[in-house]
Amino acid sequence: MQSVLIIGASRGLGLEFVRQYRKAGWLTLGTCRSPEQDALLSAEGATAIRLDVSDPDSFAGLNRALAGTSIDVCIYNAGAFGSREGPSVAPSKEVFDQVMHANVFGALQAIPVVAPALLKSRGKFAFISSRMGSIGLMASAVAPTYRASKAALNAVVKATSIEYGPQGITAFVMHPGWVKTDMGGANADIEPTVSIAGMRRVIANATPESNGRFFNYDGAELSW
Fold it and tell me: CA–CA separation, 54 vs 146, rounded Å?
């Protein structure tokens, strides 16, 4: 049975990943931050692992859960958006820290914890980024803190691909599209089911040549 770990699995895109992978028959592990979310993941047939990606001490539990195991796919989905104000309004330290910790610091903490389990299977490490983090595609000044965090995440994943690619892990980033979630809002373009189905195809079709690249949910490659 193939296995997947979804970091940030209790709502939105993460929960839809859980549902679709479980329906496909995968052994599914998902991280969450509360007992209520534990119960939600368990009800979907997933194994819940308590993790707060903003707290480095919290990764000890994930490390214990993965010790000696092998997983085929890990998806880093945890994230925060922060303010939509443009660069004419400075973010508060609290908002800046929240976004950077969830989107960048958490990923940097997760990589060395998850990598040993992926190395055993020569697995795939997919990170949910955003085209808002693309400097080449930027055409709006909205939410510069979020944009900066996703650009930083992209750099982290590129470095990860250089370090772990030769060892067998395929690391890449994906843009989920503008999705109707709490973060994306009701006016977004696509439903979570469409986004996740597309990203699951990207993951399934990923090869070692996909290492260090940036994909749209429909498989098109995006510029950094």
Answer: 16
Give which of 204, 198, 224, 197 is closest to 212, Cα–Cα.
Answer: 224
User: What SS3 class is residue 143?
Assistant: coil
CB crowding 157-170: b at 16 or more within 10 Å, else e: bbebbeebbeeebb
Residue 135 CA to residue 149 CA, distance in Å, equals: 12
Task: Supply the pLDDT for residue 186.
Answer: 62
Its pTM stands at: 0.95
Q: Which of 61, 134, 148, 164 is nearest to 104 (CA)?
A: 148
pLDDT, mean of each 10-residue run, the chain (224 residues)? 96 94 98 92 96 96 95 97 93 96 98 98 98 94 96 98 98 88 64 93 98 97 96
